[in-house]
Design brief:
two-stranded antiparallel sheet, about 400 residues, Immunoglobulin-like, single chain, ABC transporter involved in vitamin B12 uptake, BtuC, four-stranded antiparallel β-sheet, 2 domains, alpha+beta
Length: about 400
């Protein structure tokens, strides 16, 4: 397929508008993308290249983008036009959704409840992946680490850079992002938290440091990344597939499978390995663990590495499943309160409690959309956090009293 050509030379002052025709992972070549003005007149059109990409140059303004149906492969359809404001100085990306549109009237209340429950389970597993490390860090060091949210964001941004800038497919890019997250966790412990522990800095002072560190890193990401959502090259425009009454995209099904596998691996690590048992011993009683011959600092370093790797993976999974295959500069901050709600509900410092609490929070968030506006869906989980702190401060699986 030859390079795409526009139907006319772009006028002076035009800005680029681009996208990729991606039908559930299959790139669509040779399809015609049109840009129409407010009067419905075609301003420009272009054919997609062999890898499904296309680009138009348009004057700033509001346009309706569509794909000419006759140029699509047999059996492929687009869910309507996409209206976008095109402006200079920003990324103008258009994403088309493929497949037939299902209206709400086609879904029975029972089917809607089941689908929402599955969505809640998926969201809860993503929160758990990101939040388990936060719980382990609190259990072994006593630190309430507000900067953990930025480790989530850095994981997503690292995967985005590897995927879009270096052209690495998203799956291996995610593996490399996890390695980056592990390195960030080890570096943060060695450069910031270990020196503070050696100076016997109080936990309140460390908490304040974590807040300042979180704000600094968040705005550094804003400066060097972008203030807009940036898409991965893969896993956009996914088509839902029906599994009986359940409808899931391949990306969301993969997110659930990966989350379950990783959380199971973490559970096995904690219960069956020497380092896992040492982590639980340090969390239960740091001084007693040290007197038993456990190298506490080595355990803490491992916890920071594990927490950084899980946070990075959580950032990628959150971007794929909740942000439509995109990355945002404050995505970790948006997830932070939900992580705190989950690990507090399950029991601060307990890994298994964090797993349970985060899944419950995810279910509550998604099920609340059945009765309240989706814009208010996070309110319910925060109310649960308040109730738990009043009724059972130690959480579901937490101990009422810690020794030492």
């Amino acid at each position: 397929m030859a390079a795409a050509q526009e139907s006319a030379d772009p006028p002076t002052g035009s800005v680029p508008v681009s996208g990729t025709l991606n039908n559930g992972g299959a790139r669509i070549a040779g399809a015609t993308v049109q840009a129409l003005d407010a009067a419905g007149t075609e301003v420009a059109s272009v054919q997609s290249t062999q890898n499904g990409s296309w680009e138009l140059a348009l004057p700033p303004g509001t346009y309706s983008f569509g794909v000419v149906a006759d140029t699509l492969p047999p059996g492929v359809s687009v869910q309507g036009a996409v209206v976008r404001d095109v402006a200079a100085g920003r990324a103008n990306t258009v994403i088309f959704s493929f497949g037939e549109v299902r209206t709400a009237s086609e879904v029975s209340p029972g089917e809607k409840l089941l689908r929402t429950t599955v969505d809640g389970l998926r969201f809860g597993l993503v929160i758990a992946i990101a939040g388990v490390g936060l719980s382990l860090i609190y259990g072994t060091t006593g630190l309430t680490n507000f900067a953990h949210s930025e480790m989530v964001t850095l994981g997503g941004v690292a995967a985005w850079v590897l995927n879009t800038t270096l052209g690495i497919p998203l799956i291996p890019a995610t593996g490399l992002a996890i390695v980056v997250g592990i390195g960030i966790g080890v570096l943060a412990n060695a450069a910031v938290w270990k020196p503070l522990r050696k100076r016997k800095t109080g936990l309140i002072a460390q908490l304040v440091v974590s807040i300042g560190l979180a704000i600094s890193v968040r705005y550094l990401i804003l400066i060097f990344f972008s203030d807009r959502s940036e898409p991965f090259d893969d896993y956009q425009g996914q088509v839902e597939k029906k599994w009986g009454p359940i409808a899931l995209t391949d990306a969301n099904a993969t997110v659930m499978a990966v989350s379950l596998a990783v959380l199971l691996a973490v559970a096995v690590l904690l219960s069956r390995t020497r380092i896992g048992k040492a982590m639980r011993a340090v969390a239960d009683n740091r001084d007693l663990a040290a007197s038993s011959g456990i190298d506490v600092e080595r355990v803490v370093m491992f916890v920071w590495a594990l927490g950084g790797g899980l946070a990075a993976l959580g950032g990628v999974l959150y971007g794929i499943s909740e942000l439509g295959g995109r990355v945002q500069w404050e995505m970790g901050f948006k997830l932070l309160l939900l992580m705190f709600a989950g690990i507090t509900l399950g029991g601060l410092g307990t890994a298994y409690g964090a797993l349970l609490g985060c899944v419950v929070v995810g279910l509550l968030v998604q099920l609340s959309t059945l009765v309240v506006s989706p814009d208010l869906k996070y309110v319910g989980s925060l109310l649960v956090l308040i109730v738990i702190l009043v009724i059972r401060p130690q959480g579901i699986l937490g101990s009422r009293q810690r020794i030492g």
